[in-house]
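## tool: complex_structure
## caller: assistant
## args:
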Amino acid sequence: AKARGKNTYRFFSQELNDAANERLLIESQLREAIREQQFILFYQPKIDLRTETLVGYEALIRWLRPDNTLIPPARFIAVAESTGLIVQIGEWIILEACRFLARQVSRGYAVTVSINLSARQFHDNNLPGMIERIIKRTGVAPTALVFEITESMLMGDTDAAIKQLNQLKRLGVSLSIDDFGTGYSSLSYLKRFPVDELKIDRSFVKDIPDDQNDMDIVAAIIAMAQKMQLRVVAEGVESAAQANFLKQNACYLVQGYYFSMPLAEQELSHLTFTIKT
Ligand code: C2E
Ligand code: CA
Ligand code: CA
Ligand code: CA
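## result:
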């Protein structure tokens, strides 16, 4: 039994070691990335199909390594989250996104900026105060800021979540539920949360117009959002057919590769949309 236990241990420990080592490596590299300011925000346009104008941007983080490789958030956000480094990185994201917004406004562009919050960040009691300080420091209008959270962050201690949402709302910012439809929130649940916007997850958009089931779901989410007087945004729009379907079903706010990939700030001037001023 001892021998088997040992073998079992060795078998698992090797895998655990690899995973743990990988995590440790990413963690130490992330600390260095924070020190050396290796993060960069990309911005994806949010379009209003009624006017075909650019109405805002979603800030999306990337990690630009010294060797010039661009690491997507899927490769490091989870480690940043589990190590708590996300709090520091997250503060930088909010400051940087607000500075970007201030620059856009100073050029005469009336745009909003959407910022993704991670679970740890959202549950941090210091978050509202931190956002308030950044708003003051950068001079941006809080009404031009949208904070995106996911359904799963609202589960668990819902009273605490509602309290935090209300603290954020008091700042004058808007709140959006990201990846809507992929979590487990029921409608009665949703009604309790003081949010302004729903973002339909890409997984429901990607097979339009081939998947009738997905089209029914998307139409139902749009109708529900309207009933609840929530703004509705579709993400991951990659084709004219998808954009047309959304427009016909009265979902006018869209993001996706069909309009633009997320771009570095210096590339945004090449965009051909009309920008509302
Ligand atoms: P998300 O918030 O759902 O962001 C949308 C993702 O879909 C982005 O990937 C975006 O580049 C991608 N995307 C946009 N349009 C299309 C499309 O038409 N087709 C396809 N296939 N993809 C599209 P990205 O930038 O790699 O971000 C992945 C996830 O990482 C985000 O999902 C978000 O959960 C997280 N993330 C990104 N930036 C931040 C950040 O600043 N803070 C936090 N906490 N999380 C972030
Ligand atoms: Ca998002
Ligand atoms: Ca999303
Ligand atoms: Ca998504």
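## assistant note: The mean pLDDT is 92. The two ends are 74 Å apart (CA to CA). Handing back to user.
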